[in-house]
Design brief:
The radius of gyration is 18 Å and the shape is globular. The chain contains 10 helices and 15 strands. The chain has a single domain, classed as 3-Layer(aba) Sandwich (UDP-N-acetylmuramoyl-L-alanine:D-glutamate ligase), CATH 3.40.1190. It is 39% helix and 19% strand.
């Protein structure tokens, strides 16, 4: 989506979205990354595609919607850097991506990937039949030896009910190898009061490598260890922090790092992100 963030007395126009943020971080880490979505045919959509390509993302799987455009969100932050969002995304092209020409070819390419990463927000914007096709894609990729990573990123306003969201989350967990839930989201969605309860639920459904993100307290590893961030920071903007953690973690794991090493990499990238404004800060 397009992203509006504060810049002095005005607003800056950028871009963001949870899976996109993670894709950019993976590409910046040197991985071969393609992004599967849909954009409009307007100049703003064309600019997004060119900017993503400049980040090193393969845009060949991005479909064109002749009638829809790109979603928009605005970020506001308080004195502690905590963010809140306003969204305008009901007519975004990504919602109809599974109905567009070219989707079958794109899915056939995607199932060859070493890693497929998506989130509960991905599922929230898709109709039920499209969600089923995404689960099927994950199962085919795993059958070929690929991995699937799933982030339980819960946004209540995107769902008709918490029950619908829980059903979609659990279906995704069942076909995931790497789980990246956030305790705050899980508590809001399922009333799970501890990282241990979240990890147990995800593991029971078949996701063996579950990292429970605990915000400033760090992350819970599959062995039960709580690994805190390397340093305590005073965030400027927490937008995209969890997505940056995902990008750092997945990049390290794909490079052969241990779970512990990958969590530290995730913490460091998230720490870099929260000390700058916007979901995907410019490299410096």
């Amino acid at each position: 989506m397009h992203e509006l963030s504060r810049g002095g007395d005005g607003w800056n126009l950028g871009y963001g979205g949870d899976t996109l943020n993670t894709a950019v971080h993976l590409a910046r880490a040197g991985h071969d990354v393609a992004y599967l979505t849909a954009l409009g045919q307007d100049p703003f959509s064309a600019k997004l595609k060119s900017e993503w390509a400049a980040e090193g993302i393969d845009t060949s799987l991005i479909l064109d919607d002749p009638t829809r455009a790109t979603g928009l969100y605005a970020i506001s932050t308080d004195d502690r850097g905590e963010r809140s969002f306003a969204y305008w995304r009901d007519t975004s092209a990504a919602r109809e991506m599974f109905a567009l020409p070219g989707i079958e070819d794109a899915l056939a390419i995607a199932e060859q990937a070493d890693l497929i990463a998506y989130s509960l927000i991905t599922l929230a914007i898709l109709p039920p039949e499209a969600r089923e096709r995404l689960y099927a894609l994950c199962r085919r990729a795993r059958a070929r030896g690929g991995k699937v990573a799933f982030d339980g990123n819960y946004r209540p306003r995107l769902w008709g009910s918490a029950e619908e969201a829980r059903e979609a989350r659990d279906a995704a967990i069942a076909c995931a190898d790497i789980g990246l839930p956030t305790l705050e989201d899980e508590t809001l969605l399922s009333s799970d009061a501890s990282a241990e309860a979240v990890a147990a639920h995800w593991s029971k459904l078949g996701c063996a490598e579950t990292i429970v993100k605990l915000g400033a307290d760090g992350a819970r590893l599959p062995n039960g260890e709580i690994l805190p961030p390397p340093e305590v920071l005073q965030p400027v903007d927490t937008s995209g922090a969890g997505d940056a953690f995902n990008g750092g973690y997945l990049a390290a794991r794909m490079d052969g790092a241990s779970v512990q090493e990958a969590v530290i990499a995730g913490h460091r990238l998230a720490g870099w992100c929260v000390m700058r404004r916007g979901a995907i800060p410019n490299l410096d």
